[in-house]
Amino acid sequence: MRSTDRNFVPNSKVNKLLNSVGKNEQQLIGLLSKEEQTAFQEFKNVQDELSGVNEYELFTLGFRLGAWFMLEVMEGLDIPFIDE
């Protein structure tokens, strides 16, 4: 899932930042030659892929940390029907 795939609350900070990025990108593209636009698009594609990998890794880390906390809590509980 990419940030552009989600719905944001109108006038939220994220929504304002995304609008600003889009506006600035369009202004920049207007200043570039066709060759420069192609290079910029390739740069954006790689940056998007890197962001996706980073988001995945952070989610995985958070999920594992949450599972670890859950196990720590469950270890201290006296749960019936579980033999030790």
Automatic annotation (TrEMBL):
Pfam families: DUF6809 (PF20648). It comes from the Bacteria. This is DUF357 domain-containing protein. It comes from Acutalibacter muris.
